[in-house]
Design goal:
Blueprint: E1 7-14, E2 24-26, E3 29-35, E4 39-44, E5 50-55, H1 82-89, H2 95-98, E6 104-109, H3 116-121, E7 134-139, E8 143-150, E9 155-162, E10 169-178, E11 184-195, E12 204-208, E13 210-217, E14 220-225, E15 247-255, E16 261-268, E17 273-280, E18 286-293, E19 306-313, H4 321-326, E20 329-330, E21 333-334, E22 337-339, E23 344-355, E24 363-369, E25 372-377, E26 384-387
Parallel strand pairs: 1-9
Antiparallel strand pairs: 1-8, 2-3, 3-4, 4-5, 6-11, 7-8, 9-10, 10-23, 11-19, 11-22, 12-16, 13-14, 13-15, 15-18, 16-17, 17-23, 18-19, 20-21, 24-25, 25-26
Length: 398
């Protein structure tokens, strides 16, 4: 997180919606709910943020929401102005996003801060996709379609969320189109942020199919190897949350080049809960670890937040085009993506939840085997096996 052409973004949500997708309020925000017998997912109208993913149990109860809900009041993105809200949320390029961020937000068409001239011209942190109001296009018992009018890039993006009865799996599809007649750089990052009570220094473990990378030391980057540390040095162990406040992390890792399917995950042993994302490496070869443990005193943070970002994407570079071209490759891997002229592209990824057994203290590996997601846990011998539909998770189209 800390790190003139018209555009349209359309988001489609498919599943079982109480009240056929009628607007509801979630933390004073307009939202829609997607639900089956295993999961409940809440999506914000403003920016399309996936604000809540809740796993139900066999007794009819439910788990906690692992995703981050900021402690400060949340605004609809269209309500924010520096004049009215600058004292509360600051006056930088990040302020508008902080006013409305929740859970998992989409960073598109760049990740990080705009340049100073771009900020003056109206760009905000992580691009416009998280900061616009949706307009409902269609709705029925199984689908809802929303349109976002973006004003600063020549692309269109369609997101589809699906559920299948009996499966604790959220299927996500995103289709992007370049409306321009030029090839263009592209940043595309899934900004997944975990929050309290899931984030707990004594009970949280975060894992990824990551390899070498860099950790930040002040203004410098130092070469590192995942997970960088051990239980004896938790301040540097990226599997663990910083043990004492104030602390923070911002690090970058290359996902395993030997794999086709990658993962990031979070586990809380107190609540016996797992949330993992599974995706194709060809779509998202990088993971960025962002952590905040009551360190930032500026508004709206005020030294109160405990968050862990496990952000996977196609870019290693926080910023826009000028930043991209300064470091186009790291570890023999592109640090940003491209959309060629008039190109259309589709990606798919999964979010999967599960209760975990006693002794399960992290994820050693996640693999796909037939019609099962197999989660190999640390501290247990028997893997978790979760049914899924392979045809809803296929490599992106060239």
């Amino acid at each position: 997180m800390r790190t003139g052409t018209a555009t349209a973004l359309t988001v489609v949500f498919l599943g079982i919606f109480p009240g056929h997708g009628e607007n509801m309020k979630f933390h004073d925000r307009s939202a829609w709910r997607l639900e089956n017998d295993q999961l409940r997912v809440t999506v914000l109208e403003g920016g399309g943020h996936i604000a809540e993913i809740v796993l139900k149990n066999s007794a009819g109860g439910e788990s906690i929401n692992p995703l981050w809900i900021p402690k400060w009041p949340s605004l609809e993105p269209w309500e924010f102005s520096f004049e009215k809200h600058g004292d509360t949320f600051g006056r930088g390029s990040e302020s508008a996003l902080l006013a409305s961020i929740m859970g998992h937000n989409l960073c598109f068409d760049f990740w990080g801060a705009p340049s100073q001239t771009e900020f003056v011209a109206g760009l905000a942190f992580h691009g416009d996709a998280s900061l616009v109001r949706s307009a409902k296009i269609s709705q029925d018992a199984e689908s809802l379609t929303y349109h976002f009018d973006l004003k600063r890039s020549g692309t269109a993006l369609t997101r589809t969320l699906r559920m299948v009865r009996g499966q604790p799996v959220l299927y996500v599809e995103e289709k992007v189109e370049n409306k321009l007649v030029i090839d263009r750089p592209l940043g595309w990052v899934q900004h997944v942020t975990f929050g309290s009570p899931f984030v707990d220094p004594d009970a949280s473990f975060f894992d990824a199919s990551a390899t070498k990378g860099h950790v930040t030391k002040g203004e410098e980057e130092v070469a590192a190897q995942w997970p960088v540390g051990s239980s004896e040095s938790r301040e540097q162990d990226h599997r663990r949350f910083g043990p004492e406040a104030p602390s923070g992390k911002m690090s970058y890792f290359l996902l395993d080049p030997a794999r086709e399917v990658e993962f990031v995950s979070g586990v809380n042993t107190k609540h016996r809960l797992l949330l993992a994302y599974v995706f194709q490496r060809q779509d998202f070869p990088w993971v960025m670890v962002w952590e905040e443990n009551r360190r930032i005193q500026d508004p709206p943070w005020s030294g109160k937040e405990m968050t862990r970002g496990m952000e996977f994407g196609n870019t290693r570079i926080p910023g826009t085009m000028q930043a991209y071209f300064k470091r186009p490759r790291i570890h023999d891997t592109p640090t940003f993506g491209w959309l060629t002229a008039k190109e259309k592209r589709t990606i798919r990824y999964l979010a999967v939840m599960s209760f975990i057994p006693e002794g399960f203290s992290g994820v050693r590996n996640i693999r796909l085997e037939g019609s099962e997601i197999v989660v190999e846990g640390i501290g247990v011998k028997t893997p978790l096996r979760i049914n899924y539909r392979p045809e809803l998770f296929v490599p992106s189209q060239p």
